[in-house]
Amino acid sequence: MSGVWHVGEVVESVILTPSARGIILDVPNWPGNVAGQHVDLRLTAEDGYQAVRSYSLATAGDAQRIELAVDRFPDGEVSPYLVDELRAGDQLELRGPLGAWFVWTPENTQPVQLIGGGSGIVPLMAMIRSHAASASPVLFKLLYSVRGPRDVFYADELRELAAASAASGNPTLEVTIVYTRLAPPEWPVAPGRLTREVLEAQTVPASLTPDVFVCGPTGFVEAVATWLVDLGHDADLVRTERFGGD
Amino acid sequence: MAVISRGFFGRRRENDPDLPPGQYLTEDFPVLSAGPTPDIDTNDWVFSIQTESGDVHAWNWEQFMALPTEEVTTDIHCVTRWSKLGTSWRGVSLDTLFAGVDTTNAYVMAHAYGGYTTNFPLEDILGGKAWITFEFDGEPLAPAHGGPARMIIPHLYFWKSTKWIRGLRMMEKDDPGFWEQNGYNTYGDPWREQRYW
């Protein structure tokens, strides 16, 4: 039931990038969620003033410990508080899980292409974690566009999951990172925006009819989704989620 | 009883009486859609209204542009919590489009190019409450915002304002559309915060 406000307690605020935090919460009576869903998060000031924003969940499953991720939006009302002020022991109210469209469950048998820009990785990470936790045999590919090495969310975890998959003899997770402004030392390609050519070369081909999930800023999502359709993907199999604002 | 958020003060940007509960003001115009933006040529564009008798009232782009238009200035409210006040549109009133339509059904399903659907009561789109628009801020409506033509029903959350509108189909019952099957409220009144199931 999504109408109930749950009270979660912050277990830890993890530094994901210089501007983003992973917020790990214990939420008693959390009903569980599937990968890709989000929550409404409500803050209340001492005088009763309230502000509510939606954030994607980076986790999936039945556990009552959940994880959100928040990127600081410089002019935002809520995200700077969550990134800079929130700490372990604080309580937050949240409602959810919400959303039944931009979701992936382990019952799905189609190959999956995930395409994330910046903090758009968060719901995709929930899918990657759900895929790993369920030992799903389905092929997952992630194409992840970031400004620079410091901006990669979940860098170690992605590297370890991809390495474990590669070592398994039957790789089911491949990760490709595109650096738009600054590449790591000795990176084989110069930094630059994602292009249609790179998209075509690094993603599951349309002929395999993958389910495609695209999440990121509007311009990124618009460009990627249009290219995907040009490359022959069925528009009905391309699911998009955009973020803007706070 | 709400939990107090230690150290949270808020900006009080929300003290505007034109802002429904739980909404915040935005100056830009965020884009939200569930899939790719369709590429629609106005040469191929048709808008139609289909009634329970099977009658279809259809307009191609040229016929549509020959209809009387209205300038609409209105506030819009997205379920994702942004509101934008005083937006300006040009379009054809649904009153004009329904003038020759004979129906006793009380509900409507909107259909978009690309397959999106959304449902609403007929009374919510008549009486100067809804338009098929083709201009925003004096410019042709951009594809990402629903161009060439978008329905707007500003008194409901903005997912009810179908981008890339293709037609309306009369329904006897209030069957759910796309988001209404995927977690959102069947009616979507921002002033009553009817966001979710």
H and E order of chain A: EEEEEHEEHEHEHEHE
Number of helices of chain A: 5
Global mean pLDDT of chain B:
94
- Percent of residues of chain A in helical segments? 10-25%
Largest sheet entry of chain B:
6 strands, mixed
Question: N-to-C SSE series of chain B?
Answer: EEEHEEHEEEEEEH
Q: Distance between the terminal alpha carbons of chain B, to the nearest Å?
A: 22 Å
**Which two chains touch over the largest interface?**
A-B, 44 and 40 residues
Short overview:
The complex is a heterodimer of chains A (246) and B (197). Chain A has 246 residues and is an alpha/beta fold.
Write the layout of secondary structure elements.
The complex is a heterodimer of chains A (246) and B (197).
Chain A: E1 5-17, E2 20-26, E3 38-44, E4 50-56, E5 65-71, H1 79-84, E6 91-98, E7 112-117, H2 121-133, E8 140-146, H3 155-167, E9 173-179, H4 196-202, E10 211-217, H5 218-230, E11 238-243
Parallel strand pairs in A: 7-8, 7-10, 8-9, 10-11
Antiparallel strand pairs in A: 1-2, 1-6, 2-5, 3-4, 3-6
Chain B: E1 24-25, E2 46-50, E3 56-60, H1 61-65, E4 70-77, E5 82-93, H2 94-97, E6 107-112, E7 117-121, E8 131-136, E9 139-140, E10 150-152, E11 165-171, H3 178-181
Parallel strand pairs in B: 1-5, 2-11
Antiparallel strand pairs in B: 2-3, 4-5, 5-8, 6-7, 6-11, 8-9, 8-10
